[in-house]
Amino acid sequence: MPEYNHIYHTFDPVYDENSKQLILGSFPSVKSREQGFYYGHPQNRFWRVMAAVLEWRIPETMEEKKRMLLENHIAVWDVIDNCDIRGSSDSSIRNVVPADISGLLKQTRICRIYANGKTAGRLYQRFILPSTETEIIVLPSTSPANAACSLEELIRIWGNALKI
Question: Hey, CA dihedral for 60, 63, 68, 73, is it positive or negative?
């Protein structure tokens, strides 16, 4: 098993002043950290789910991904600013320093917050909810580790929740 490393989130949230919905992950995977952008693991289904829900072509570049999100008033970030973690394992996360989600909310029109998976939801409840007082809707993770949900099921559940 890999050793613990203290890692800082090194890329910015995706948002603008017109963002109305926020999707929060827990912390970037090793692949995402290497690429410097969200959901970078090739087996993560986030971009396929969002493209299907938003009726867009699956974005390939960072700019296409940002444009798809922003044109649909969706912001993306992670609950954790920095932590100790082994590789990409959410279950290994400890010594959490949360991201400034309440600061982001003050700069936008975000009125609904979603967690991409149970870990992000649990971390939000523990570290962020007291400062935002905004409940989070926990959606099934798009991670390849969540083999219980098919792509079609993720698209249905996420589409119903986002009501886009």
Answer: positive
The residue count of the chain comes to: 164
Q: Do 136 and 113 contact (CB within 8 A), yes or no?
A: yes
Contact 37, 62 (CB under 8 A): yes
User: How far is CA 41 from each of CA 30, 95, 126, rounded to the nearest angstrom?
Assistant: 8, 24, 27
The pTM assigned to this predicted structure is 0.96
pLDDT in tens, 57-102: 999 999 999 999 999 999 999 999 999 999 988 889 999 999 999 9
Give the residue carrying structure tokens 């050793």.
3
- Backbone φ/ψ region at 87: left (φ over 0), alpha (ψ -120 to 50), beta: left
Q: What is the DSSP letter of 96?
A: E
Question: d(Cα 30, Cα 104) in Å, to the nearest integer?
Answer: 25
Which residues have a Cβ under 8 Å from the Cβ of 126 and sit 6 or more positions away?
none
Model pLDDT for residues 92-137, shown as the tens digit of each residue: 999 999 999 999 999 999 999 999 999 999 999 999 999 999 999 9
Question: Parallel, antiparallel, or unpaired for β 5-8 and 80-85?
Answer: antiparallel
Cβ pair 140, 157 in contact under 8 A? yes
